[in-house]
Amino acid sequence: MDAREIFCRFYNICTLYVSLTHSLCFVAINKAATMSPSSSLTAASSSSSLWILKPSPAFKSSRFQSIPPSLPPSSPPSFRLLRRAASLPHASATDFDFALHDALESSGIDTSHAREARKGFISQINELSNVERETSISINRRVDLGRTALYIAAEDDSLISHSSVPLPVDAFLERLDDLSLGYCSHYNSLSRSSRENFLESIEKYLYVKKGFRRSSAKNLAEPRALYLHSVLTHRSGSALMLSLIHSEILKMFRLWGLLDFDVEIFFPHDHYGLPRAYDKQKSKESDQPHIMTVQMLLEKVLRNLKAAFWPFQHDHVDSLFLRAAHAANCVDDPNGSQESAYHFASAKAAQHRLERGVWTSVRFGDMRRALSACERLILLKTDPKEIRDYSILLYHCGLYEQSLKYLRLYQDAKSPSSSQSRSTNSVSILEEEAVQKLFVRLNLIAMEEDWCQPIYGRNFLGNNSEPW
């Protein structure tokens, strides 16, 4: 059964309930979703979201006077599809005992919303098989990337705002779905004259009609460009967020039967290009490096957050780990005598701000969000270097016991072949030397009494909110 037949059956069922009241409609449809295995609701739930019907007074029949040819004429215009989360399963147990939430709790900060958002994130990435990780975002089925990105935003929002109300993930998912539904009112037969015209009309709708634009390169560190809910609100974001939004619109069209051919998202690697959709049958070999997979998207989203909020922003070294290692005096700087007084004073000032727990500008970093990005990257099972970077952040927080634990995990996780291949890389040599110095220092600290009780660890994670 193809998507169009599923869609027709779905709306034929809906027409039986149009005359019922609002409440009876929801009861009947939810009951059908749980009892009828042949219904399209069951078919749609093959993804990580549950699809239900919701009456929409805003979508009057007058807005659907020109219904796309691929939609059945009997479809009731007063209903629309929205994603709703099923009850979240308990996050599967992991081998990692992360420190961030517990450290904040020990400081008197409620992390219940952050923990729930983390559970939601884990429930999504648990669906990632090896095949799914390498699947293009435009055809991915098992993981709801929009929901996953919003869980990331919800956790970080809770960490910095300490709000008693969690970020409304479902409300922003509804806004994401409204983008797809809004296109239907601008749909015309000319758009379906060819595949190229159809994809071009979607781009014009998204980038012209709706006004979504890419953030400039100098503003990539701004939170608005890195969190999906902010991009949906301000319509300005990174190429990653725009790619995610574009692919989610295409997924909705495929579900509704509007899209009956394979489409790929072209991800731009420059600082100005916009993500665009193209017919996969007409793809070229040169398009392959521009295809964004599920694993790549999630890694890049989290690494962008990690870089934006890394607490040591004044060092000009590209390696985030070396910046932190330099601040911890774990790196021998051959040019130390030539370092400018201004650079030295700036580094000292930044360190002093961090020790006092002052977070007023993202240019000075945010230890909480840097730690949360590292923890989620570790859960994604990416590069073992993420464990190393997490370890040195814990060291700067004064959590020496946990820092030593994760540094040992890093040494166990890195493969001998990768160590040999890095032997000729000057940056990698400095990183490994810093790892060994940090390891020695942590072992010496371990010999001291009460070493696991940090003196200033809470200063990094204290109750200091920062506005978006």
List the keywords.
468 residues, mainly alpha, Serine Threonine Protein Phosphatase 5, Tetratricopeptide repeat, two-stranded antiparallel ribbon, 21 helices, 5% strand, Protein SirB1 N-terminal domain-containing protein, SirB1_N
- Provide the β-strand percentage band: 5-15%
Largest sheet entry: 2 strands, antiparallel
Helical stretch tally: 21
Radius of gyration: 25 Å
Task: Provide the number of structural domains.
Answer: 2
Rough outline: elongated
With strands numbered from the N-terminus, the spatial order across the biggest sheet is: 1-2
Unreliable stretches (pLDDT < 50, length at least 5) are: 11-94, 336-340, 463-468
From the N-terminal CA to the C-terminal CA, the straight-line distance is 46 Å
Q: SS-based structural class? A: mainly alpha
Mean pLDDT: 74
How many strands?
A: 6
N to C succession of SSEs: HHHEEHHHHHHEHHEHEEHHHHHHHHH
Helicity range? 40-55%
Protein name: Protein SirB1 N-terminal domain-containing protein
Domain Protein SirB1 N-terminal: 173-251
Description:
Helices cover 52% and strands 5% of the residues. It is mainly alpha-helical and 468 residues long. It folds into two domains: 99-303, no CATH class; 312-414 and 424-447, Serine Threonine Protein Phosphatase 5, Tetratricopeptide repeat (Alpha Horseshoe), CATH 1.25.40. The strands form three sheets. Strands 1-2 form a two-stranded antiparallel sheet. Helix 7 crosses helix 8, helix 16 (367-379) runs antiparallel to helix 17 and helix 18 (400-413) packs across helix 20 (426-446).
